[in-house]
Amino acid sequence: MIRVLIVDDKPENLYLLRALLQSRGCVVDEAGHGAEAIDKAHQAPPDLIISDLLMPVMDGYTLLRRWKAHERFRTIPFVVYTATYTGPKDERLALDLGADAFIIKPVEPESFMARIEEVLARKTGGALLPARAPEGHQMGLLKEYSEVLVHKLEKKVFQLEQANRELHAEIARRQQAETELLQSRQDWEDIFQSIGHPTIIMDLEHGIVAANKAAIEVSGKSLDELRNTKCYDLFHRSAEPSKRCPMEALLESGSRERVEIEMEALGAYYLVSCTPVFDKQGAIRKVIHIATDITERKKSEEALRESETRYRALFSQSMDGIYVTSREGVLLDANQAFLDILGYKRDNVVRGDIRIVYANPSDRDRFVQTIEASGSVKDYPLSFKRKDGKEVECLVTSNVRRAGDGAIVGYQGILRDITEQATLQKQLLQAQKMEAIGTLAGGVAHDFNNVLQVALGYTELILRHEGLPQRVRADLRKINNASRQGAELIQRLLTFSRKAEFKPQPLDLNRRITDLTEILERTIPKMIEIQLLLSEDLATINADKTQIDQVLMNLAVNARDAMPDGGKLIFETTTVLLDEEYAGTHLDAKPGYHILLMVTDTGSGIGKETLEHIFEPFYTTKSVGEGTGLGLAMVHGIVKQHGGHIRCYSEPGHGTTFKIYIPGLISGEQQEEATFKETTRGGSETILLVDDEELIRDLGSRTLAKAGYKVFVASNGKEALELYQAHSDEIALVLLDLIMPEMGGEQCLKGLLSLNPSVKVIIASGYSASGPTKDALADGAKGFVNKPYDVRQALEVIREVLDSG
């Protein structure tokens, strides 16, 4: 009896083979895959093995290879029975591996069994299969086999019908998908063509693949002409991509890029949006360019930039301060002139509260109410406080700023510094006031003098009578003496009003001072030291000797009264040149050469309020009975009558200096020589000018700049130290005021010396060099110049100190 091992993963295939082989009397064993077949062969080796090819775990080819490699199994016939047939190569492979037969499913049972008998006969030398089973048994098996076949056929038909339905559904889906795809392509094409901006699709070599109508129109070419044309050749007339090409940036970054670029061939500017298109693997396949014409926008931007440039130039270069604030009072912007006028640095004030610059914060509230009521104001007077504490007078022209809905959001305007004009106006008013007082005093004095003359004349006539009682005579003498005192008072008023008798003659001022000193040394207290600093080459003046003596005596007496505990009284003389700039800032001064007389005391000094009134008649700070208040008024009148002017420089606790300028009698040759000397004393070094008075800083910086120097300015000692520390390698000399807020000159001088022991500092002061400035000179200052500046003297001292090594 033949033992057959059949191997197949399909139960129905195993069943059919088993039924067929058993009908021929074979003993059949089954396995679902190659590994199971080998295990069963080890247990009971078969006479024949029939195997399928495609199976799990171990397929038929592997089973065949191992079967023929096994020493025990290699002689057992191996038949391949499979429905997997892709061509002769499958059969050739199986036969090469050792298969004894290669049978392709399906095959007729008789043909199949004939092939099996042939293999067995070839292997064993004869037919080994038993005879056919009895007819009845055979018919039963055939019936059973037919039923299996019918069942399998029904199953296959069902599977085919189901597959057919699925195939029809898939075909319908594919047709629907194809229709949708075609519609989608059409929609895409419609959208692509309807894009109003030039749009092109390019390959990675900058070649144009597709272009919409807008791109075709702007290029002036057909679509066929555009295809495969390099975009840089077409739009930029270039042999290679531009450095600003967005596609180059996109290929590097892998993401969308946007750039504004000029397309020379089109004569226009475009905003190009460059977007990558990726394949399924994430690689860039193509690039979409959408170009928006921004030529008009660029022109508008350029016009706006030009407008902004002009505005900024006007804004930054304006000599007037320009500002912009919010309604709440935040300073949003300001030009340099605004910062200079108020003495601030940009970081200190911009974005800060504007109220800090008002001398009186409540002034802003009134200003805001006025401007909001009318929408704008012109030449509105306001006082502002500089950072150094000084006040500046300004005229403000301003208007409101509105939002789109008309609501007020802030203010903007122009601020003009009129401090200098205000000072000149104040001087003019003072001069007019003094002139009016003088006119009034002269008229009253003239009339009152006549009355006193009558009183004096009649009392003297009566006193000549010998028979007058002694008591009456005594009373008449009192009336006569009082009338004489009144006459002297009237004479002083006439002197103040410049109506007294005036007899000018060439006069040596130094001689008059020397003669007066001899008298003063016998009359003033011994604890007051008199010092004379008289210029040897002083020119003569055309003056009334008596009146000049009155001036000297009055100033000496005032100095004595200011030093009850002793001190120093200094008389100084020198020749000065007052230029046009000086005369322009001092109303009663005239340009030209003058003799300068300085009378300095080291007494208690005079307050600012008092300084404004000291030359007015009957104004006095002395107690009743200690003075009439006409002394300085008479000095003022005498100086004016001599064509000169007088200045008083004083600070409480720092003494007082009176400066009297009287025109000098200087020859033309002397003037030419002095002028030549003046013009040769300039330089090119950098000077730091330190003074708390803006007008003096302005005058000094203009004078120095005119002489060729570069000038830094500071308003106090602290600012001066900061400037010197920042520019010490540039600054060759410091011109330093003594009396200043925040940090005075002496403290600043010490700070400068600590930064640089060899620093060159010149003290500038309205005081005498032998007065309060003496200590500063002793502390290390290299020189001294008078304030207000005498151009010749100042430039000479500066040049001497700079050249001193």
Main traits of this protein?
single chain, 5-stranded parallel sheet, 5-stranded antiparallel sheet, 27 helices, alpha/beta, 27 strands, Beta-Lactamase, about 800 residues, 6 domains, Rossmann fold
Quick overview:
The chain is an alpha/beta fold.
Low-confidence stretches: 496-500, 624-629, 672-680
- Report the structural category: alpha/beta
Mean pLDDT: 79
Distance between the termini: 138 Å
Summarize the structure in words.
Residues 496-500, 624-629 and 672-680 have low confidence and may be disordered. This protein has a five-stranded parallel beta sheet, sandwiched between helices. It has a five-stranded antiparallel beta sheet with strand order 7-6-10-9-8, sandwiched between helices. It has a five-stranded antiparallel beta sheet with strand order 12-11-15-14-13, with helices on both faces. It has 805 residues and is an alpha/beta fold. The protein folds into six domains: 3-133, Rossmann fold, CATH 3.40.50; 195-299, PAS domain (Beta-Lactamase), CATH 3.30.450; 318-417, Beta-Lactamase, CATH 3.30.450.20; 423-496, Helix Hairpins; 505-663, Heat Shock Protein 90 (2-Layer Sandwich), CATH 3.30.565; 681-802, Response regulator (Rossmann fold, 3-Layer(aba) Sandwich), CATH 3.40.50. The protein is rod-shaped, with a radius of gyration of 61 Å. Helix 1 (11-22) runs antiparallel to helix 6 (135-194), helix 2 (34-43) packs parallel to helix 3 and helix 24 (717-727) packs parallel to helix 25 (745-755). The protein has 27 helices and 27 strands.
